[in-house]
Amino acid sequence: MLTLNENFLHLQANYLFAEIAHRVADFQQRNPDVRLIRLGIGDVTQPLAPAVIEALHRAVDEQASAEGFRGYGPEQGYLFLRQAISDNDYRARGIEVSADEIFINDGAKSDTGNFTDILGRDNTVLVTDPVYPVYVDSNTMFGRSISFAPCTVENGFVPALPGDDAPAPSLIYLCYPNNPTGTTLSACELQRWVDYALAHNSLILYDSAYESYISSPDVPHSIYEIRGARRCTVEFRSFSKTAGFTGLRCGYTVVPTEVEVVSSTGQRVRLANLWRRRQTTKFNGTPYIVQRAAEAVYSPEGREQVRSTIAYYMQNAAIMHRALSELGINVYGGKDAPYLWVPAPAGTDSWGFFNRLLHEAHVVTTPGVGFGPAGEGFIRLTAFGKREDCIEAMSRIARCLKGE
Ligand code: MLT
């Protein structure tokens, strides 16, 4: 008899951003003349960098000749891109990550969800709360038990390590700069997590999709800046937010050769080998033209162009932060990350504030509780909008909150 993976029945009916899109579409259908400003899902709005566009054109043209044509590529990604990543994102910062340890993918979302395919179903999972919903949903699909480390105003959004008497989680997800709160951890705070993972044989899955938004000099860009991390951490990065690839799709996963897990028969297994084995079976690689586009992000012009787009978004974040602060709101994030974490007015919950801003200010946000129970009472705003929309959204929110 055909049966289901019934773990899927334990998921919430809709993925968070699908649920929001549904509510927004419903509102728009009933109010077709309203111009909504969308500061909900963290999707970029600026065009791709000219260097990326040129690389795409060149790569497309190559496909027109027998010599330039590419069919199936290496599942792990082309060496030209893995080498560019190793040289620019790691060695340039004094971090040892070799091209062999890098796996190109179609965006960090896929791999943060898929990576645990190679890990046992009975692993326990710790996530911060609030949290990017993919980590929770993808482990729920395996039926894993998940615990939450709250990140609140009271603890400065720094998750506490599990207590001595609590069972140690086998998998720990950390995302810094953080989605959704926009906050960061210092090197000391990250060192505590790495030390904990090493002492308890846990694996850290470190999502640094927003790394390129860091401007504070003391915030670590990679977990591998932290002593011992190469033995216990897998790192995920993305070109989506760094270079506007949300539609193009490209990211990468770093699996250091030192990360090993002991099998039930006592065999030490390198996770990099198992991940390669999984990918060669289930993944046929990111398109060649997309990998050439990603490589162009590291050219001198590409770097400059991408940097200026990031500065544009972070200027949006500063404008929004200032406007909300002037309303007397304590806004978090927005300094080293393109997200602002905004408390709802007293007596209003996340969905209540979301609905009010949708119906009265015509601004789409993300309700904080959608990221976990500790997100209740907040909404998240993205700084990825167009400048004029961000400014207009702040005026609309101000008018709405002042009851004008
Ligand atoms: C978000 O809004 O949290 C992100 O855009 C979602 C994602 O990167 O998949």
Note the topology.
Layout: H1 16-30, E1 37-38, H2 50-62, H3 79-90, E2 102-105, H4 108-114, E3 125-129, H5 133-140, E4 146-150, E5 171-175, H6 187-200, E6 203-207, E7 233-238, H7 239-243, E8 251-254, E9 260-262, E10 268-270, H8 271-282, H9 288-296, H10 300-326, E11 332-333, E12 339-343, H11 350-361, E13 363-364, E14 366-367, E15 378-382, H12 387-401
Parallel strand pairs: 1-13, 3-4, 3-5, 5-6, 6-7
Antiparallel strand pairs: 2-8, 7-8, 9-10, 11-12, 12-15, 14-15
Helix pairs in contact: 2-9, 3-9, 4-5, 10-12, 11-12
The protein binds D-malate (MLT).
Question: Can you characterise this structure?
Answer:
With 404 residues, the chain is of the alpha/beta class. The chain has two domains: 6-47 and 301-401, Aspartate Aminotransferase, domain 1 (Alpha-Beta Complex), CATH 3.90.1150; 50-298, Type I PLP-dependent aspartate aminotransferase-like (Major domain) (Aspartate Aminotransferase, domain 2, 3-Layer(aba) Sandwich), CATH 3.40.640.10. 37% of the residues lie in helices and 14% in strands. It has twelve helices and 15 strands. It has helices spanning 16-30, 50-62, 79-90, 108-114, 133-140, 187-200, 239-243, 271-282, 288-296, 300-326, 350-361, 387-401; strands spanning 37-38, 102-105, 125-129, 146-150, 171-175, 203-207, 233-238, 251-254, 260-262, 268-270, 332-333, 339-343, 363-364, 366-367, 378-382. Strands 2-8-7-6-5-3-4 form a seven-stranded mixed β-sheet, with helices on both faces. A four-stranded antiparallel β-sheet has the order 11-12-15-14. Helix 2 (50-62) packs antiparallel against helix 9, helix 10 packs parallel to helix 12 and helix 11 (350-361) packs across helix 12. The model has no long low-confidence stretch (mean pLDDT 97). The structure holds D-malate (MLT). D-malate (MLT) binds next to loops. Residues 41-43, 109, 132, 179 line the site of D-malate (MLT).
